[in-house]
Amino acid sequence: MNKVTIIGAGNVGATVAQALAERNALNIVLLDIKEGVATGKALDLMQSLALTGKPSRLLGTGHYADTRGSSVVVITAGSPRKPGMSRDDLLKINSAIVAEAAAKSVQYSPNARFVVVSNPLDVMTYLVWQVTGLPWRRVIGMAGVLDSARFQAFIAEELQISVEDVRAMVLGSHGDQMVPLPRFSTVNGVPVTELLSASRIKELCERTRNGGAEIVTLLENGSAWYAPGAATAFMVEAILKGSRRLLPCSVHSAGKYGLPPVCVGLPVILGSRGVERIIQLNLNASEMDELALSAAAIEKNIALLKQLPAKESVAAC
User: Fold this and answer.
1) 50 CB neighbour count, 10 Å cutoff
2) Residue 3: helix, strand or coil by DSSP?
3) What is the spatial distance between Cα 106 and Cα 66, in angstroms, rounded to a whole number?
4) How far apart are CA 267 and CA 113, in angstroms?
């Protein structure tokens, strides 16, 4: 069995574990600083598989030694957003947590591919890349898959059609400056620009940018977990199966699109190596400007990350 470690047994981490276990036969380790929470959720999930899932093995733990030999490590640990907070507000809070998780897990799984979920997503992806010292292709942030799923859901709802026929593409940062791409979003091959007015598309793009904040406001105490968990599991499966899916993910720009050396949402082929390659879309001037602004905002937050005291940044950068 392939081994998948999920660091953080909160709502998102547990949802990732459930989605993976119900569709695949895997050795899943759920790790949390609150060991009882991880153990209890793993036990509950294992019992549910007797009715709903594949013959996966689940272990809840607080010890990194139990993660040894993982094929994929998912990092969801950290504080969730609360009403009034942006993802960037979590930079100082989550950087030390994520850096420690990355440093400890790579010791036991040096050949793993890392999928980063903690916010602020793009900066945390960059941090994990720096801390682990792994090739950039093996450190991937989960953002574009989630944001594109939200855009797809809103398009399907607006057109009153099956979401199965909708494909969307959202690039850039996982934040207010994300870049939904209507020209590259389709309904069974038909561009959404042929089906909706420009004004309505603009409204759906804005709702997509605020998709997470909308849920945070409604919940009042916490943030989304079903869609983030499903999106993360989707990415992990693409890696484990080597299925080479074309997905928007937060990855090191590697000089593509003329962007600075940051982790930002770009279209990639995701497979067994992690990022097999970055796809170069023919963006127009407006789309390129938005993507550049998005990357510049991430670059600014990376600079802030580097200014944090060593005990908060773990001197990772």
Assistant:
1) 8
2) strand
3) 12
4) 18
Which positions are catalytic?
174
Separation between Cα atoms, residue 127 and residue 109, nearest integer Å: 17
pLDDT recorded at residue 30: 98
Distances in Å between the alpha carbon of 214 and those of 16, 28, 56, 175, 266? 22, 31, 35, 13, 24
Q: Which residues pair with 265 in a beta bridge?
A: 172, 250
Amino acid letter, 26: L
Q: Any idea which residue has 């990350």 for tokens?
A: 305
Residue 261 structure tokens:
């050396």
Question: Residue 207: in which H helix or E strand, if any?
Answer: helix 198-209
Q: Tell me the two tokens of residue 276.
A: 């097999």
Question: First CA to last CA across the chain, in angstroms?
Answer: 35
| Paired sense of beta strands 72-75 and 113-116, if any | parallel
According to the model, what pLDDT value does residue 197 have? 97
Distance of alpha carbon 205 from alpha carbon 184, whole angstroms: 13
Query: What torsion, rounded to 10 degrees, do the Cα atoms 248, 93, 7, 235 define?
Result: 0
Using CB atoms within 10 Å of the CB of residue 160, give its burial: 0 to 12 exposed, 13 to 18 middle, 19+ buried.
Answer: exposed
pTM for the structure as a whole: 0.93
> What does the CA dihedral 74, 78, 226, 165 come to, rounded to 10 degrees?
-60
State the greatest distance between any 2 C-alpha atoms of the chain, in Å, as a whole number.
55
Query: Strand locations in 112-153, DSSP E?
Result: 113-116, 139-141
Q: Whose structure tokens read 């609360």?
A: 82
pLDDT at 306: 86
* DSSP 3-state of 25: coil
Amino acid at 317: C
Over the chain (317 residues), what is each successive 10-residue block's mean pLDDT?
Answer: 96 97 96 97 96 90 98 92 68 91 98 96 97 98 96 97 97 93 97 97 96 91 93 98 97 96 98 97 97 96 83 42
Q: 216-255 in b/e burial notation, b at 16+ Cβ within 10 A?
A: beeeeeebbbebbbbbbbbbbbbbbeeeebebbbbbbbee
Residues whose CB is less than 8 angstroms from the CB of residue 36 and which lie 6 or more positions away in sequence, other chains included? none
